[in-house]
Specification:
heterotrimer; A alpha/beta (223); B mainly alpha (221); C mainly alpha (248); A: 223 residues; alpha/beta; Rossmann fold; five-stranded parallel beta sheet; four-stranded antiparallel beta sheet; 30% helix; globular; B: 221 residues; mainly alpha; 0% strand; elongated
């Protein structure tokens, strides 16, 4: 469980972000800061743009206006650096059914530039979500909850700096949620940070909140 | 660069595990070519004359049919999101996946082409050129195909549209590929054709990652 | 907001184009009217081809403008991708069907001209082949616009296709020319026929002007329609997003 790059202890700042998807203004003028060691929770009704914000911070979506910085350095100027910092967990689990649980994890580690992990390291990571027993089984046998847990183990394996979690507790039972909370706490203790959208109560300890309200929908073709 | 090869290796492993993909390309290729003697009659002279055209068109079609394997699977289970967020730039991601695609599709076509030459009564002097031309041309097919696949990834009815997008790009490869083999069969110089195939390959090597990455970025929003 | 100019332009375009529309329509009618009259009745028949040469007055302008419209589409696409001007992708989208129809007219009139003149409906020379491929590119372009639900993404995808196609067309033309020199060295079918006599030049120029003005008129109408359609769509999205409660 070693990263190819020591985590930078820098604050992530979002400055007046605006997001437009299709013809819809999803949110506008959103600003917040996430300091190292801090978790920020996204709150807002359905459709208020929590998923869009997470994808935007990840870099899959470009903001219509506004910018994001790491300790003052613009994300747009060095997107590769930004990608090395963030880890995204979306609605899907990116688990390949024809690979074993162990292989799924190893392939992600390799694609994310981690050096080749030892068998022990893989087992250790899997134990954070109690999946060690399934390590050599093909992932197609896994249930939805188990796949989500495997996706979360990916975070532990290659932690990066900023975790972007979109409803991480979906399909998880209570024990798995507790395990996630442990991993999250350890990540924050190591001066990592997290931006989380969650409906289900995830006990995170002291955290910041960002409220997203359904923005005024902008009609682009107003005369 | 380590990440690049990791991605290639992953796609190769997935292709091998998912099994049927490579075999179905091979089977389609052979079956399609087989249809022609059945359709136009077994007369050797006629078959020999149309051999290179038939083999090339079949290779084009086989490549086209295999294109949805390139991005669709990763798109559907959310892997493409994560790959796009890896340190590797999207242009290199597309190149890596296209390379893996060629290794499991184009390369197979290159290796099978002499066999199909026999079935189509291809002139003896043309076999070496056939393999060389296919080796130069099939990578371009995968590269151009990647553009079409990237533009239509995630579309429900994308299949037919891909053909419409990709065939115009395939045409120069077809023309010069057939030209090379035809020249060899007639005892003329195939060098200019092969050189142009090489140039088209260089061109596609530059165009494809850029256009594919732009299209992927678009579809991942 | 940094993008305020986006909101001013469609309205300004509609005002200016509405002012131009009657003039362009009049010009179209005049050009076509006089051009067709001169071309079909006044200009002399060709000493070899007879009256069938008159198809040229439709075929040649349609063919050149088919490529011209593609160039317009490609340039508009480039502007849309690079400078993000909101009217650029509307212009590109609106030109495509017009270009496709011109291409179809060029192909059909070419076939109709070819049969009495050279005895064949079709021939695979470089020009005709690349015009046929251009038709497929137009169709693919239009298909791509329809395939996306989100207009912004459709615009970017279509722009990518238009630019890739713009590079591809000359390559195809060159490839087929090469191929033809190997296979049909004797083929010298020239779609513009013998040297153009001045008596033929004036009707041809008038028809060319007519096609051009026709393109401008239809383009403006289509663009205005597209702008309105997008406004309606935006209002609908607003309405749906508010569960049916919002008032425009």
């Amino acid at each position: 469980m070693n990263t190819s790059q020591t985590p930078k202890h820098d604050a992530f700042v979002a400055d007046r972000l605006t997001c437009i998807r299709g013809q819809r203004l999803v949110f506008t003028d959103l600003s917040f800061t996430i300091a190292p060691g801090c978790a920020t929770v996204l709150r807002g009704p359905n459709g208020s743009g929590k998923s869009s914000l997470l994808r935007l911070v990840a870099g899959l979506l470009k903001p219509a206006t506004g910018r994001m910085t790491w300790a003052g350095a613009d994300v747009a100027a060095d997107r590769e650096f930004h990608r090395r910092q963030v880890r995204y967990v979306g609605h899907q689990d990116a688990v390949k059914p024809t690979l074993t649980v162990d292989e799924n994890l190893r392939h992600w580690a390799a694609i994310y530039g981690e050096s080749r992990p030892t068998k022990a390291a893989v087992r250790d990571a899997l134990s954070t979500q109690d999946l060690t027993g399934l390590a050599d089984l093909p992932a197609r046998l896994l249930s939805a909850g188990q796949r989500r847990r495997l996706n979360l183990v990916r975070l532990v394996f290659s932690p990066g700096h900023l975790w972007l979690l979109d409803e991480p507790t979906v399909s998880l039972d209570a024990e798995s949620v507790t395990r996630l909370e442990t991993s999250l706490r350890e990540h924050l203790d190591r001066k990592g940070s997290a931006l989380i959208a969650t409906h289900v109560g995830l006990t995170i300890g002291p955290h910041d909140t960002v409220e997203l309200s359904p923005a005024r929908q902008l009609d682009e073709y107003d005369a | 660069m380590r990440e690049f090869w990791a991605l290639v290796r992953r796609d190769l492993v997935l292709a091998r595990r998912q099994g049927s993909a490579a075999t179905s390309v091979a089977v389609f290729f052979i079956l399609t070519v087989t249809l022609f003697p059945l359709g136009v009659g077994p007369e050797s002279a006629l078959l020999g004359r149309i051999a290179s055209g038939v083999i090339w068109v079949a290779a084009l079609l086989a490549t086209m049919l295999s294109l949805d394997r390139l991005y669709q699977g990763d798109y559907e289970d959310g892997s493409l999101d994560l790959i796009a967020l890896s340190p590797l730039p999207l242009e290199l991601v597309s190149l890596a996946k296209t390379l893996a695609h060629w290794l499991t599709t184009g390369l197979l076509l290159v290796l099978l082409s002499p066999l199909l030459g026999v079935l189509m009564q291809l002139e003896g002097s043309a076999y070496l050129t056939l393999v060389a031309a296919m080796a130069l041309g099939t990578p371009s097919l995968s590269l151009f195909g990647s553009i079409g696949a990237a533009l239509t990834v995630g579309m429900k009815r994308g299949g037919v549209l891909v053909s419409l997008l990709v065939i115009p790009l395939f045409i120069p490869v077809l023309i010069f590929g057939v030209g090379a083999v035809g020249a060899a069969a007639d005892g003329l110089s195939q060098r200019p054709h092969l050189l142009i195939l090489g140039a088209i390959f260089m061109f596609s090597l530059v165009l494809s990652p850029v256009a594919s990455a732009a299209a992927l970025r678009l579809n991942l929003e | 907001m940094a993008n305020m100019h986006r909101f001013a332009n469609p309205a300004r375009f509609t005002r200016i184009s509405n002012a131009l529309l009657p003039w362009l329509t009049g010009a179209t009618v005049a050009f076509f009217g006089i051009g067709l009259y001169l071309g079909l009745f006044v200009s002399p028949p060709d000493y070899q081809q007879g009256d069938s040469v008159r198809i040229m007055y439709v075929h040649v302008p349609a063919a050149t403008l088919a490529s011209g419209v593609y160039a317009v589409m490609a340039i508009a696409s480039a502007i849309a991708l690079i400078w993000r001007h909101p009217l650029a992708d509307i212009a590109a989208k609106s030109s495509a069907p017009i270009g496709a129809v011109f291409t179809l007219i060029a192909l059909v009139t070419g076939a109709l001209w070819g049969q009495p003149t050279w005895g064949t409906w079709w021939v695979w020379d470089a020009r005709l082949t690349s015009v046929l491929i251009m038709l497929f590119l137009y169709l693919g372009y239009m298909g791509l616009w329809e395939a996306f639900d989100d207009d912004r993404r459709a615009a970017k995808a279509a722009a990518i296709l238009a630019l890739v196609g713009a590079v591809n067309l000359p390559i195809i033309k060159f490839s087929v020319e090469w191929w033809n020199t190997l296979h049909q060295p004797a083929s010298i079918i020239r779609a513009d026929g013998p040297t153009i006599h001045p008596d033929l030049l004036i009707p041809l120029a008038l028809m060319w002007g007519g096609f051009l003005c026709f393109f401008a008129v239809v383009l403006i109408i289509r663009m205005q329609r597209e702008i309105v359609a997008r406004r309606i769509h935006a209002l609908q999205t607003l309405y749906v997003a508010s569960d049916g409660h919002a008032v425009a």
